[in-house]
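User: We ran a pulldown and think these components assemble together. Before we commit to crystallization trials, I'd like a predicted model of the whole complex to look at. Sequences follow.
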Amino acid sequence: MKRTILKENNLKELLTNDVNYFAIDSSLKEVDIPSNSSINLLITKPHQELTINVKENASLFLSLLVKENIDGGKLNINVSENAKVEVYFADFSFGKETYIFNGQLLGRDSSLNWHLASLTADNDQKQFDISVKHLANSTFAKMDNYGVCKDDGKLVFSGISHVINGASSSKTHQNAKIMVFDEKSIGIAKPILKIDENDVEASHAAVVGKINDEHLFYLTSRGLSESAAKELITLGYLKPILNGFMEEEIKEEIMSLIERRM
Amino acid sequence: MATLIIKDLHAEVEGKEILKGVNLTVNEGETIALLGPNGHGKSTLLNVIMGHPKYKVTQGSVTYDGVDILSKTTDERAKMGLFLAMQNPSEVPGVINSDFLRAAVNARNEKPISTYNFYKLLDKATKDVKMPFDLATRSLNEGFSGGEKKRNEILQMVMLNPHIAMLDEIDSGLDVDAIQIVADVIKQEQEKGMGFFVISHYARLYDLIHPSRAIVMINGKVVIDGDPSTIKRIDQEGYEFIKTELGIEIAKEEANMNTVSIGTCAVKEIIK
Ligand SMILES: Nc1ncnc2c1ncn2[C@@H]1O[C@H](COP(=O)(O)OP(=O)(O)OP(=O)(O)O)[C@@H](O)[C@H]1O
Ligand SMILES: [Mg+2]
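Assistant: Here's a predicted model for the assembly, 534 residues in total across the polymer chains.
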């Protein structure tokens, strides 16, 4: 797959049938996804504040990889009528940071699927404030936040799903899971549902805990050392994020990031 | 000779004593049948031998090949040649079956196995157990049917080639054809010298694999250690004769005994 660098907010001009995969330059502040288009966007550099406007009937597949020491970032995605957005965020950054995501479902029948996998280790302190606001009818949002927390790391997921009065027939789901490796690491998941409308389907689930002893016993009973077993289980936990990246080299890069930071 | 010797073994789970002085020897290359009513400690015994962290050994010893294995970690026991096919194999989401198998094979090798040799081994093993190859590429046991999970246990056994394979109700959930397949694999491994310690409630599997001894566990103790004709008798009459002939009261199942003992209790703090 050939990628084109996007330096300005001029997707409309660059877009052809063959050119629909773009990597964003980190200086960009705003990107408009033209209506009726189908775009793949890749971000592999830290960004400050970025706003993406997904126009009517467009579909956006966003792959986000962060691997440096950053102090935070902010992403806003505004989704218009009948537009579909899929976000995969692989977070292997380190340091002390707060990352903010604001999704707004502005038009009816718009949808947003958010997947985050975060590895927090070596005294990292990370906070993710992930919120989605349903502002129109028949909107759909699903957030999956997965994290692994080890070596005195601290990881906080706070997720807010807000359905305003009038955004009827909307569905909103949140799912947070944090695997805590050792006694000193801290994982916190705070899913919040703010529902101001009756005709809504909403759910949230949060699990924070250590590796299942049965799983560990099963793997070690086949000869894997405890650390190898833990690594395999963790890998299995973070690996689904690879589905969000189209280039083999980037998949491999993510795998080696996981292995290195484990 | 790599013999497994269990002496006066006592073990408890959550403060409750389950094994109450087990004495037993499993010789290399021997096939032993282990029977007993539900909840009398059969699975507990195998899990203790393998080193499950849930069980606490309070007394007695287990040696294998002259080595005290109770002080060894579970993976060390596996690498010494012990294998346990679980009564309820865990589903481990995200861990790909073949990645896991490869890691397990490599744990025993000085040098990592080549991709080519690994797939050759896997291909042969899946054919032996007549398991669709695609199960090997899926998440470990996740969404497998009951019978598929059991076949996957046998697949692992074939690939890891232990000295003593302990099979905990490997026949439960298997259809008639699958029992035959598993029995064929067992016979093939018996010929190569693998020993078996097999828990089953039914004579069908035993009829196919011809154990040389039958062990019966009641109330956390071995009460019969003798010739395999006992299997037929239990199959036909149940365990009543143990009470009438040996004078041993069989403790009745408590209300909670129906719940399968390994790994079914949902603990909120644990990620499934
Ligand atoms: N975590 C636990 N807490 C309390 N009791 C337990 C626990 N795990 C097992 N037990 C109990 O230990 C006893 C022995 O269980 P075990 O699984 O060894 O029986 P079994 O002989 O294998 O039975 P079955 O034929 O039904 O498989 C049972 O009474 C069971 O309820
Ligand atoms: Mg049992």
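Helices of chain A lie at 11-14, 213-220, 226-238, 248-261. That may be worth checking against your pulldown data before setting up trials.

User: Thanks, that helps.
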